[in-house]
Inverse folding.
């Protein structure tokens, strides 16, 4: 895929914002299929992005077995490095299969964010009130339910309840980032402001010291 900053980073290992975050290589995990690194403008310490190496629009375009693997990877990263920071929570802002760009990034990815259970509960309630929400007990059923999804969607999972897919015709690209920030009393949430240098480095150090 041309003009994809993530594909470039996977290939070169060079971080596009190295001058701002004083880090040449931010990769904290990599295997044959997936790669993970701290988010720029992290909402909290431990805010990690997990990507399939293959360039696709949304995670549900992976095979069922690879979707299972990427969720298993998020749980491993959380349990080994992030558990003391908060509860397990992951989400994806997915786009329809024939479109691109979600949260300003056109390479499928999952956000792994350790946050307090009360914040997760408030997010679920807010999404339930504002979106059409479908709940799926298995990844297979979730993938099947999204095959004909015409809208952008939010995939939410806390490792305890069902996988949840929230959709509606229109919503802003960083909406869930904003919601999470608001629930935690933070005024800044736009990743393009390139903030959170201390949290970014603290996330990196957790993986180096483990």
């Amino acid at each position: 895929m041309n003009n994809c900053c993530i594909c470039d980073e996977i290939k070169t290992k060079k971080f596009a914002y190295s001058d701002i975050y004083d880090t040449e290589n931010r990769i904290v995990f990599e295997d044959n299929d997936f790669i993970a690194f701290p988010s720029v403008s992290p909402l909290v310490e431990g805010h990690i992005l997990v990507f399939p190496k293959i360039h696709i629009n949304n995670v549900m375009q992976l095979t069922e077995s690879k979707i299972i693997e990427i969720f298993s990877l998020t749980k491993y990263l959380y349990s080994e490095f992030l558990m003391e920071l908060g509860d397990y929570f992951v989400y994806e802002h997915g786009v329809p299969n024939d479109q691109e760009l979600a949260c300003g990034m056109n390479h499928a990815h999952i956000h792994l964010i350790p946050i307090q259970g009360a914040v997760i509960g408030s997010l679920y309630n807010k999404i339930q009130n504002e979106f059409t929400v479908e709940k799926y007990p298995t990844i297979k059923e979730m993938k099947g339910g999204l095959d004909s999804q015409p809208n952008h969607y939010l995939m939410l999972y806390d490792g305890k309840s069902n996988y949840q897919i929230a959709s509606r015709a229109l919503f802003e690209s960083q909406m869930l980032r904003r919601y999470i920030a608001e629930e935690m009393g933070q005024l800044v949430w736009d990743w393009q402001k390139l903030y959170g240098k201390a949290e970014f480095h603290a996330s990196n150090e957790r993986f180096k010291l483990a």
